[in-house]
């Protein structure tokens, strides 16, 4: 569509095919979409990095309540600003692709939901999670009492060792029981 | 950073690969490795090609991003049906229609292929053609056209045998495909049990549909998630209040009674209408209006439109939980369609029997006429070599040919079903959307927010319609080979038409729910419908005698006699013997008994596996409880266990090597069962996008791989610290 970004090299393409769950068409499409996000100067540097705001403007991510967390999780930037290189972008698409396994998806879901990056989902993380899911407007938010009840119910269900937090294995145990998770944890360009 | 490390590794491996195989087998080993690599590449390319071949991906993806995965699942189901019908069409067309057209006799050469003299002057009229009479009736579309010669053409193609085998083979293939899809779906779905165990956790972690790309849908989704949270909280909090259980029971019984009445009423209505259509058939066709001629199909489609909303309104008396209410609704609509279809079939049977009666007299007349002709000829010309009577095919006296009549009925039913569906979409969705959009400017209340607003896409209604349409095709395909082709066209246009209608006239559901396990539910319905449509066809093949002057089985006692004839005449003698032995009841009964016992045995084994599963889960739970007890409070509940633990070498302190990772301290309290989780993906690509976890110590990726090997696609993702 208008942008004549550098074409993806053949050897890189086959390498990406081997390293990710994506098919050739998907990688080429991802490259095209990624190049559209780059500004003119960035196109010529070897590993360009797209700032988070531009990534969030993608239609697939725009309506997602977890978009900022997704960018942070997949970003390899030293400055922790959520910016993505092309390989980060492919990482993202691969984890969200159709052929990714349950373990990969649940691992990344855990990291996305872990708002404070401490390796467990504690009460604060769960509360932020619920607020994300119920939308931004005030009339859709839960009251404090409902929130407290909800969080205690969730911990009762998923916290097996009763330490007040949900760690990765408990999370994966819950997720492996869910029939919907794999089919809904998908992003396709 | 990660990729360049990988490139180094790849270069190293490529350089020294050959050296890994030692000794004499070195060249062979290198060759094998090269072939394996080429195979992997070929498989990958083939997978890419297969994905590119799937039609309508973008369309469905667009629908999915606007409406969520449940509406898209209807279109995926439609696409799957299209594929199935395409294969059935290929069978029917390639093995039955094409040979008859290319190698059989042309139109007009024999009586069954010619329009009778009486009908000829109106055979091209549009109204007659639309009714599938005239030239349509005597064409490849219907059973009656096909000739009964044992072999035709240069290739000695056995058409009657092929017709019978294809007719039965259609069911066999469909059965295979449906069951295979069901098995595949149930595999991916995980275990269906444990529904109530994780309600809140599921709502929290799995309720968001990441495919949603449209802000309006996202807003709806937020609202529905909030509602479902609040509902569950309230559910959990309130006690079992059975307020006035008697009133509720009475209302439910009343509702069921009303619905049974309406089901019975609709069945009776159809029977009545079919009887009337038989009387109409005896009258002169010109006197009847269009409505009277198509009454049956019209009434059936009307019932299919009116009754489901009626059921929904009656069901409000019952006050069930929405999910249970949906199941009841689906069950009732299913019963309605089934009842209607079978009533239609029974009425059709009466018609068939009547035709068979009429046929007897015509057949006797024909045979008598032929005998007279032969005896007169031989007595007049005094020869035994008698040529066939010199009558034009159009003038020959004809039997009523019940199979073609049945085929015509099914084709008319399908066509009217298509018309009603398309009309409903046009009026119910498109016209409604136009009215709401344009009249809103000059109307007293807000049409968009209040009544009638835009329509929502009725998933269950559409899916059931699709399933029953397929059932009708299965039933009618034996009597009207052209029906399958008609259905292929219908599904193709349906796809584009409904995609357009949904995108332009519908709004996303208020309660955006996911398609999940219900996929197998619809497959199960399809399987049931397949069996139910198999029954009438098999029954007619086995019991009813074929017409004496039309179709590929004419002149035979039963339709399946073709198979016997082929076995006797064409196959070597010993195969005939095998079949005679195989159809001996003394052999069949033990075989049936064996199968019943096998089913019982498999059932018992599966129950045992389930029990073993439960036991293992309990053990895991107990082990975790023990660990927790040991870590949190030093005093153990079980003193004996504690003593035992003290005696054994330090097992608990030295947790498995996996925990040696620096991150273990953070989640040390939790049981580290990560090592049990294998990332051995069944994916042939097998490579895993390793989460580039450890950011701080950059060399961590090269550190000693913890526990299981860190090859491609294996090993656990490293913890983040």
TrEMBL record, chain A:
Keywords: Calcium, Magnesium, Metal-binding, Repeat
Gene3D superfamilies from the UniProt entry: EF-hand (1.10.238.10)
Source organism, top-level taxon: Eukaryota
Transmembrane regions listed in the UniProt entry: none
Family matches, as InterPro entries: CIBP, EF-hand-dom_pair, EF_Hand_1_Ca_BS, EF_hand_dom
SMART domains reported in the protein's UniProt record: EFh (SM00054)
GO MF term list: calcium ion binding; magnesium ion binding
Ranges for domain EF-hand: 101-136, 146-181
Cited SUPFAM superfamilies: EF-hand (SSF47473)
Name listed for the protein in its UniProt record: EF-hand domain-containing protein
Top-level taxonomy: Eukaryota, Metazoa, Chordata, Craniata, Vertebrata
Automatic annotation (TrEMBL), chain B:
Family matches, as InterPro entries: TMC, TMC_dom
Sorted UniProt keywords: Membrane, Transmembrane, Transmembrane helix
Location of the region described as Disordered in the Swiss-Prot/TrEMBL record: 621-721
Keyword Transmembrane part of the UniProt annotation: yes
GO CC annotation terms, alphabetical: plasma membrane
Keyword Transmembrane helix found: yes
Transmembrane segments: 80-105, 126-146, 161-179, 253-274, 329-349, 472-493, 521-542, 578-602
Membrane topology term: Multi-pass membrane protein
Annotated compartments: Membrane
Main location, first listed in the record: membrane
Signal peptide: none
A GO molecular function held by the record: mechanosensitive monoatomic ion channel activity
Gene Ontology BP, a term: vestibular reflex
Entries under Pfam families matching the protein: TMC
Composition skew (Basic and acidic residues), residue ranges: 621-634
Residue ranges of every copy of the TMC domain listed in the record: 401-516
Family classification: Belongs to the TMC family.
The protein's name: Transmembrane channel-like protein
Originating species: Oncorhynchus tshawytscha (Chinook salmon)
């Amino acid at each position: 569509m208008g942008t004549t970004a550098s074409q993806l090299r053949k050897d890189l393409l086959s390498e990406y095919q081997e390293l990710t769950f994506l098919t050739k068409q998907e990688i080429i499409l991802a490259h095209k979409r990624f190049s559209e996000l780059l500004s003119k100067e960035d196109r010529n540097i070897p590993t360009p990095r797209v700032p988070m705001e531009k990534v969030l403007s993608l239609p697939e991510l725009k309506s997602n309540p977890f978009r900022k967390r997704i960018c942070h999780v997949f970003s390899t930037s030293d400055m922790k600003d959520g910016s993505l290189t092309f390989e980060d972008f492919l990482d993202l698409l691969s984890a969200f692709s159709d052929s990714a396994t349950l373990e990969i998806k649940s691992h990344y879901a855990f990291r996305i939901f872990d708002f404070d990056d401490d390796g467990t989902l504690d009460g604060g993380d769960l509360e932020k999670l619920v607020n994300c899911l119920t939308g931004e407007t005030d009339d859709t938010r839960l009251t404090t009492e409902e929130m407290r009840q909800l969080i205690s119910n969730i911990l009762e269900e998923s916290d097996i060792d009763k330490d007040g937090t949900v760690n990765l294995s408990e999370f994966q145990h819950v997720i492996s029981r869910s029939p919907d998770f794999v089919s809904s944890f998908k992003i396709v360009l | 950073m990660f990729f360049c490390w990988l490139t180094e590794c790849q270069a190293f491996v490529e350089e020294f690969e050959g050296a890994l195989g030692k000794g004499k087998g070195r060249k062979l080993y290198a060759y094998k490795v090269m072939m394996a690599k080429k195979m992997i590449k070929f498989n990958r390319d083939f997978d890419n090609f297969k994905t590119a071949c799937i039609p309508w991906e973008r369309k469905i993806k667009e629908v999915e991003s606007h409406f969520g995965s449940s509406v898209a699942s209807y279109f995926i189901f439609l696409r799957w049906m299209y594929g199935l019908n395409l294969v059935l069409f290929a069978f029917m067309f390639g093995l039955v229609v094409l040979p008859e057209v290319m190698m059989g006799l042309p139109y007009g050469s024999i009586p069954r292929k010619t329009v009778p003299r009486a009908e000829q002057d109106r055979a091209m009229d549009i109204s007659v053609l639309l009714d599938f009479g005239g030239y349509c009736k005597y064409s490849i579309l219907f059973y009656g056209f096909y000739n009964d010669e044992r072999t035709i053409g240069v290739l000695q193609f056995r058409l009657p045998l092929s017709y019978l085998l294809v007719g039965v083979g259609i069911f066999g293939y469909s059965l295979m495909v449906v069951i295979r899809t069901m098995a595949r779906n149930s595999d991916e779905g995980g275990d269906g049990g444990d529904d109530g165990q994780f309600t809140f956790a599921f709502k929290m972690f799995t309720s968001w549909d990441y495919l949603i790309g449209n802000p309006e849908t996202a807003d709806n989704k937020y609202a529905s998630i909030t509602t479902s949270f609040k509902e569950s909280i309230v559910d959990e909090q309130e006690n079992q209040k059975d307020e006035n259980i008697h009133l509720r029971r009475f209302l439910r019984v009343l509702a069921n009674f009303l619905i049974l009445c309406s089901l019975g009423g609709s069945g009776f209505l159809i029977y009545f209408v079919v009887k009337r259509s038989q009387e109409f058939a005896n009258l002169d066709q010109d006197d009847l209006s269009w409505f009277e001629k198509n009454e049956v199909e019209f009434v059936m489609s009307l019932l299919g439109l009116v009754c489901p909303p009626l059921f929904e309104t009656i069901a409000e008396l019952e006050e069930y939980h929405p999910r249970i209410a949906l199941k009841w609704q689906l069950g009732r609509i299913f019963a309605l369609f089934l009842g209607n279809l079978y009533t239609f079939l029974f009425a059709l049977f009466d018609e068939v029997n009547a035709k068979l009666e009429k046929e007897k007299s015509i057949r006797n007349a024909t045979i008598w006429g032929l005998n007279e002709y032969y005896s007169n000829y031989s007595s007049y010309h005094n020869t035994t070599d008698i040529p066939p009577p010199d009558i034009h095919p159009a003038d020959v006296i004809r039997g009523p040919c019940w199979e073609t009549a049945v085929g015509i009925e099914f084709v008319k039913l399908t066509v009217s079903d298509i018309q009603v569906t398309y009309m409903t979409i046009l009026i119910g969705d498109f016209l409604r959307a136009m009215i709401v959009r344009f009249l809103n400017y000059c109307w007293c209340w807000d049409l968009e927010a209040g009544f009638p607003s835009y329509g929502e896409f009725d998933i269950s209604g559409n899916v059931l319609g699709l399933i029953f349409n397929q059932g009708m095709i299965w039933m009618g395909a034996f009597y009207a080979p052209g029906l399958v082709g008609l259905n292929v066209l219908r599904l193709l246009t349906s796809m584009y038409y409904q995609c357009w209608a949904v995108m332009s006239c519908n709004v996303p559901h208020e309660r955006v729910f996911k398609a999940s396990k219900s996929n197998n539910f619809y497959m199960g319905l399809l399987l049931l419908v397949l069996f139910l449509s198999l029954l009438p066809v098999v029954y007619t093949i086995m019991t009813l005698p074929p017409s004496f002057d039309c179709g590929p089985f004419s002149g035979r006692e039963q339709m399946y006699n073709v198979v016997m004839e082929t076995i006797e005449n064409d196959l070597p003698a010993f195969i005939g013997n095998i079949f005679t032995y195989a159809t001996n009841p003394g052999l069949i009964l033990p075989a049936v008994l064996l199968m019943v016992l096998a089913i019982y045995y498999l059932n018992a084994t599966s129950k045992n596996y389930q029990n073993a599963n439960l036991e293992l889960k309990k053990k895991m739970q107990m082990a975790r409880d023990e660990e927790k007890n040991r870590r949190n409070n030093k005093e153990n509940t079980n003193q004996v266990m504690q003593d035992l633990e003290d005696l054994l070498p330090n097992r608990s302190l030295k947790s498995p090597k996996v925990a040696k990772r620096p991150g273990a301290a953070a989640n040390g309290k939790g049981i580290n069962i990560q090592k049990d989780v294998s990332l051995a993906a069944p994916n042939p690509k097998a490579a895993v996008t390793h989460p580039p976890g450890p950011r701080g110590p950059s060399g961590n990726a090269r550190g000693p791989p913890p526990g299981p090997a860190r090859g491609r696609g294996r090993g656990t993702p490293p913890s983040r610290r």
